Amino acid sequence: MEQKIAIVGGGITGLTASFYLAKAGYQVSIFEKDSELGGLAKGFKKTNWQWSLENFYHHLFTNDDKALKLITKLNLNKKILVLSPKSSILFKNTINRFDSAISLLRYPYLSLPDKIRTALITGYLKITNNWLALEKIPAKDWLVKYYGQNSFEILWEPLLKAKFSDNWKQISMAWFWARIKKRTTNLIYLEGGFNLLVEKLAEEIKKNQGQIYLNQPITNLNDLTKKGFKKILITTPASQFLKINQPKMLGSLVLILSLKKQLLTDNTYWLNINDPGFPFLAVVEHTNFIDKKYYSGQHLVYIGGYYPQDHQYFKMTKQQIYDEFLPYLKKINPSYNFSLLTFHFELFSDLNAQPVIPTNYSRNLSSFKTKIPGVYIANLSMVYPWDRGINYAIELGEKAADEILNS
Fold first, then answer.
1. I need a surface site. Which of 55, 105, 143, 237 has the fewest CB within 10 A?
2. Under a CB-based contact definition with an 8 Å cutoff, are residues 198 and 11 in contact?
3. CB–CB of 318/348 below 8 Å?
4. In the structure, what pLDDT confidence band is assigned to residue 1 with cuts at 50, 70 and 90?
5. What range does the domain containing 315 cover?
């Protein structure tokens, strides 16, 4: 007899675990609180677009092996695009490329000794695998010591502050190491958007008799056990169901502009905001990465940041956020006429988008098995030392499925 298992959450982790469990013969049922699957990777598609667009900016690195393995297993490997978009920094009201050794050498705000030191230390972080030693040290302290005060203040301090707000001083160096370790010059996207991956996983789950229930929030695990589910996998924040230590979470918010003309005219795809005072962390011009022809010629730009869960932005309308961000967008491109060149804009947010990773985080890392027999957890707070992303959501789902199959 097939064993019934409930998956709470239809994001990439839940879908991946369901895919493997359904293939192994489990009677899988996914319960998703929203009207669509995909979690932080879900997307939308305007009527006149050929491709969908993610609610939150996404790409893969060329070393994201777990994602590439699953994409191949789903016969989507012909849809893989490998591209080399441009990344830059906004500092002192100027945009400068910053994504290679050559761009580092040309960067005007670092001295030659700072540039040499930055190259050597970044190279060390690329080759070392000893993240356990690094997790004992706050990123702030390590970066000042090895990069030097000037490089730290220009390159890293603004980003740590912008991403983690009041928590930035406690962030573990292991988290920062993972960001440098994983980064590749080439990036990967899927033809049609990552919604293709979500749809294909759902299709395969259904082929193996899995059930998917949308608009079905789960607030009490007893409701599932009463329905005969012998095992439950929670892929959402587990603290709402269990007395369990989970890290502090930050929310993410992005405004997506659809424009008639290019905003970042130097073809920058990813712009880190290193100038103080801006209310957002990054400007990501998706159509400087993926051709605008797939979006009926519109230029699509994400403006995003991370904020405490009680931040006022999560209570504001998209028009209010647009009005809040607009003066700063004009600083980035003073000649741009937003009133004439904006088609429309969308606002997306998620209150549980980024765990705060303090020092020695591995000591308190949750295991898949909980103290309740048959109840498992696998959520983005467990991808440590790596940062959240599609590749690690897939890896987590695969590991959770293995844990359940081997239990």
1. 105
2. no
3. no
4. very low
5. 249-355
